[in-house]
Design brief:
This protein has helices spanning about 55-60, 70-75; strands spanning about 1-10, 15-25, 35-40, 50, 65. It is of the alpha+beta class. A five-stranded mixed beta sheet has the order 4-3-2-1-5.
């Protein structure tokens, strides 16, 4: 099953997360199918979510992918239309 979830990156105590479509069986930072955007929890305002590809997320959802709870919440707060 394909899941749209966060992949951790950045430095110690300064995380930056990448929104990816990945097979659920793969590790959190393992192989992914596509990068769909970036989330920076330390940024302020509109810079929190960068480069979110809403159309690609819609395409993955149409193919049967599932949003993780965290990604669903982030997209709602950023008012990304799906």
């Amino acid at each position: 099953m394909v899941v749209i979830r966060l992949q951790r990156g950045g430095r110690t105590h300064s995380p930056v997360y990448t929104i990816v479509a990945a097979d659920k069986r793969n590790a959190r930072n393992g192989r992914f199918l596509e990068r769909l955007g970036q989330y920076n929890p330390q940024a302020e305002g509109d810079a929190v979510l960068n480069g979110v590809k809403a159309e690609n997320i819609k395409a993955w959802l149409d193919k049967g992918a599932v949003l993780s709870d965290t990604v669903r919440t982030l997209l709602k707060k950023a008012k990304v239309e799906l």
